[in-house]
Write a structure and sequence with these properties.
Strand content: over 45%
Low-confidence stretches: none
Structural class: mainly beta
Number of domains: 1
Number of helices: 0
Largest sheet: 5 strands, mixed, barrel
Number of strands: 5
Shape: globular
Helix content: under 10%
């Protein structure tokens, strides 16, 4: 299985907000993250990059 870490980019500062994310649901500017154990987190922003080689998703904060 492929899990990704989610990084929030705000004012050029990177902050790890969630590890081992397996599903990402996007609805306009709302992004819901679902982890490998079913934990959930919702953010406002837009996806800037998904990099499977680094195992991360970078979300630009709104």
């Amino acid at each position: 299985m492929c899990e990704l870490d989610v990084i929030l980019l705000e004012d050029n500062t990177r902050q790890l907000v969630m590890e081992s994310v397996t599903k990402v649901l996007v609805d306009e500017d709302t992004i819901e993250l679902i982890g490998i154990l079913g934990d959930r987190k919702t953010l406002k922003g837009s996806i800037k990059i998904i990099d499977f080689s680094k195992g991360e998703i970078v979300i630009h904060s709104k």
